[in-house]
Write a structure and sequence with these properties.
The protein is of the alpha/beta class and about 375 residues long. The chain has ten helices and 18 strands. The strands form three sheets. Strands 2, 3, 4, 5, 6, 7, 8, 9 and 10 form a nine-stranded parallel beta sheet that branches. Strands 1, 13, 14, 15, 16, 17 and 18 form a seven-stranded mixed beta sheet that branches. The radius of gyration is 23 Å and the shape is elongated. The chain binds pyridoxal-5'-phosphate (PLP). Pyridoxal-5'-phosphate binds near residues 34, 59, 200, 221 and 222.
């Protein structure tokens, strides 16, 4: 099988989904499995569903159509506000979408009526991270607008924090979301069924909250897939971190001066990485680069340390090892690396399930 290769342990993904579903359900919080970092792999989606997630979400319409084909009975949400140029496809592939723009809502409603459907709408509330959503003061107006569109049904409100500005989804922010929910319900005379509080960055809050207010859904990707949370990139206790590992092949091993020589300017990706040691170092090159992975969150086996990565070369310090050309090196990756590896056509994906559940049509 060609290298680099990403191995995906579907059993670990199911276990993580199950652990999170079980811990959040006593608080009345359901889990939407977010598949985008796994390029909406049907096997990954199926593994999440086996762990009890109540629906699937993805930010790309192309990914949703993959999910639709593989999991026809799953509830699918587009978790990024739709492009006007893709409206009809959104209505076809997604049961629901996240929204913040009146012009998009209007077109969604028309497309839904044309297709004979009712499209569910979750309005996004901006609570300070400065990504998507309308300010709390404008949500009521937007909600009234949705109510007037025959092709749409307003099912809830959502918010997203931590992703753009690192704003923490704490008790204060979540209470604010609950307050806006009540306000919209009062103004529009309806009951919102979905209050989508955020992503894996909300776990710190959710798992320690005394009262989660009206929040009844979290959209979880990173924590299910990698067992980590994005605020501090820490391991979430009880979750497995080894669901994905990346293997690359050594193509050069040479003892070289530890310091580069010559006049210094920019490297391929900005400032050159500084090397700390002097004397000589055994340097190995892995045939993998930024087209396939990302240094952020990459964990090499003990004894190897990263020196830098360009498009196609991953330079590592292998001093004191007997690493050789042709060897394979297996590493763990962070969220950015996972996203890149899943998206790269150069990375072979091998999905496996340690538990044979093929009788139920799952796994492979
Ligand atoms: C990506 C995304 C998520 C999932 O985030 P994780 O940190 O991977 O759990 C949730 N909501 C929205 C809107 C997203 O774009």
């Amino acid at each position: 099988m060609t290298l680099p290769r990403l191995d995906i342990d579907l059993g670990a993904i199911t276990q993580n989904a199950r652990a999170l579903v079980d811990r959040l359900s006593p608080m009345g919080i359901q889990v939407m499995g977010v598949t985008k970092a796994a390029l909406a792999s049907p096997q990954v989606a199926s593994a999440m569903r086996a762990g009890g997630v109540h629906g699937l979400g993805d930010s790309r319409v192309q990914n949703l159509s993959r999910l639709r084909a593989a999991e026809p009975d799953a509830h699918l949400t587009l978790i990024r506000t739709p492009m006007l140029s893709q409206i009809e496809e959104v209505v076809r592939q997604a049961d629901a979408s996240f929204n913040s723009e009146p012009v998009v809502l209007e077109q969604l409603s028309r497309a839904a009526l044309r297709l004979g459907r009712v499209h569910e709408v979750v309005l996004m509330v901006e609570l300070g991270d400065l990504r998507e959503g309308v300010g709390a003061a404008d949500v009521v107006d937007l909600a009234r607008g949705v109510d007037r569109h025959k092709g749409l049904r307003l099912t809830g409100l959502g918010t997203n924090l931590a992703c753009q500005s690192g704003i923490v989804p704490d008790a204060h922010k979540m209470a604010e979301l609950s307050r806006v929910v009540t306000e919209v319900e009062r103004a529009c005379g309806l009951r919102l069924t979905v209050v989508s509080g955020g992503n894996s960055a909300n776990l710190d809050w959710a798992l320690s909250a005394e009262d989660v207010g009206r929040v009844n859904e979290l959209r979880l990707g990173e924590s299910i897939l990698l067992g980590t949370e994005p605020l501090h990139r820490r391991h979430v206790p009880g979750l497995r971190t080894g669901a994905f590992c990346l293997t690359a092949e050594v193509i050069e091993v040479q003892d070289k001066p530890a310091q580069p020589w010559g006049k210094v300017a920019q490297a391929a990706f900005g400032a050159p990485s500084q090397r700390v040691s002097d004397g000589f170092a055994r340097q190995a090159i892995l045939a993998i680069g930024r087209q396939d992975a990302d240094l952020d969150g990459l964990t090499l086996p003990a004894g190897l340390s990263p020196l830098g990565m360009s498009s196609d070369h991953f330079i590592i310090d292998a001093s004191g090892t007997s690493i050789a050309v042709g060897d394979q090196v297996t590493m763990q990756l962070g969220y950015a690396g996972l996203l890149r590896a899943m998206t790269s056509p150069f990375v072979t994906k091998r999905q496996w399930s340690p538990v044979k559940v093929s009788a139920a049509g799952r796994g492979q």
